[in-house]
Fold:
Amino acid sequence: MAFKDDYNFKDLENETERFVIEYLEEAVNADPDVCRCEDCVLDMAAYALNHSLPSYRVSLLGKLYAQAKDNDDAYIKKIKKAVTDAVKKIKANPSHS
Ligand SMILES: [Zn+2]
Structure:
């Protein structure tokens, strides 16, 4: 058995993903000129995630850690910046063909 089959790595969650999706929704809703197609929205999310520090946790232990991150202003600020940059980038150069 491979290591990846012995353990349930799907229980790992990147907390940053939750924040990125939440702020991306706000940013896209606030800008009527940005494309909302699947390709563009997923690329914005990917860009923002690639420019944010991941924050993995085991989903079973999630709650406390998540709340700690909710109150981490520097962390939140960086994610918002990554989302803003993602929207700008894809708006200027849409991902759809
Ligand atoms: Zn598009």
The helical segments are 3-6, 15-29, 38-50, 62-70, 73-92. Residues 50 and 82 are 9 Å apart (CA to CA). Residues 35, 37, 39-40, 94-96 surround zinc ion (CB under 6 Å). The chain has one domain: 17-92.
